[in-house]
Design brief:
The chain is mainly alpha-helical and 137 residues long. The chain is 66% helix and 0% strand. Helix 3 runs antiparallel to helix 4.
Length: 137
């Protein structure tokens, strides 16, 4: 449903296909981070020398936090059926920090700007003739 079809019902805007694909890619990248972290913990960390094990533990914690942030924000956006500003900004930051997700982060920025512009156009603007603008003395 295009935004301009029902501008008075801006709350009912649903995810577009490009936003669904972006969210699905974020969930897939989250899954890769989870698999990479599990691989690091289960197979590589036991074989590392004790003096360098702390570095690998820090990397495991960082990857875990990245995957939790990416997965949680993706599911928040899915539950809301739209790209919300705060979770999407967190996704963009996590994707930038991961390095490999920079193209997807740029795509997320573009989608978020488009979504915010559409919402700004679809929100009803108060008119001067509305009752809430009347001054009662």
């Amino acid at each position: 449903m295009p935004v301009s079809a029902h501008p008075e019902r801006w709350q009912d805007i649903v995810m577009k296909t490009s936003e669904k694909v972006y969210t699905a890619i974020s969930i897939v990248l989250c899954g890769f981070l989870v698999l990479g972290t599990a691989n690091l913990i289960l197979f590589i960390l036991p074989k590392v020398e004790p003096d360098t094990a702390n570095v690998f533990k820090v990397v495991c914690v960082a990857l875990s936090l990245y995957s939790i942030a990416l997965g949680a924000t993706s599911f928040i956006n899915l539950k809301a059926k739209q790209l919300l500003t705060t979770p999407t900004v967190v996704q963009i930051v996590v994707l930038f920090l991961s390095g490999y997700g920079i193209p997807f982060a740029i795509w997320g920025i573009i989608l978020l700007i488009k979504r915010n512009n559409e919402l700004a156009e679809a929100k009803p603007k108060p008119s001067i003739l509305d009752d809430k603008w009347d001054v009662k003395t």
